[in-house]
Structures are given as structure tokens and as C-alpha cells.
From TrEMBL:
GO biological process: protein maturation
UniProt xrefs under SUPFAM superfamilies: BolA-like (SSF82657)
Protein name, per record: Bola-like protein
Family listed: Belongs to the BolA/IbaG family.
Database matches in InterPro entries: BolA, BolA-like_sf, Mt_Fe-S_assembly_factor
Pfam families, per the entry: BolA
Any Gene Ontology CC annotation: mitochondrial matrix
Length: 76
């Protein structure tokens, strides 16, 4: 993981205490598109769209700099 991926990983780790977490720059290294998987107990009983909104809220300042995001969330 490069430094920016580690930053995103850390933000999500701190917010969701996930059982599984993956952050990958899929833009060829320019940091403009990320594939993210977050599996957390904090998502239990929450519809997927609301899970995505929670992640988007945590990353909103970073997402504003990106071209896109491939986001997958799961309840642990």
C-alpha cells in the first residue's frame, strides 16, 4: 500500500473497526479512483445505501478529489 492508501485505510479503520478492510488505488497509481471493501459490525441492520453513506461521510474530503470509487460494504 502506498502512503495515500494507508491514510484512507487508517480513516476507515478508526471509524468502523472492521473485521475486513481493503483499500486499493485502481487508477494506475495517480490516486483518483479507489476500490474499497469495509466489513464491519457497525453495519448490522443498516441497509446497504446507508452503509455507503456512512463510509462516504468519513471520506467526504478525500472523495471530493477523486474521479470515482468502487465501494463494497458488508455487515460482519
Amino acid at each position: 500500500m502506498d502512503e495515500y492508501e494507508k491514510k484512507i485505510y487508517s480513516m476507515l479503520q478508526d471509524s468502523f473497526l472492521p473485521k475486513a478492510l481493503q483499500v486499493k488505488d485502481v487508477s494506475g497509481g495517480c490516486g483518483s479512483m479507489f476500490a474499497i471493501l469495509v466489513e464491519s459490525e457497525k453495519f448490522k441492520g443498516i441497509p446497504m445505501i446507508k452503509q455507503h453513506r456512512l463510509v462516504n461521510e468519513v471520506l467526504k474530503d478525500e472523495i471530493s478529489k477523486w474521479h470515482g470509487i468502487q465501494l463494497r460494504t458488508k455487515s460482519a
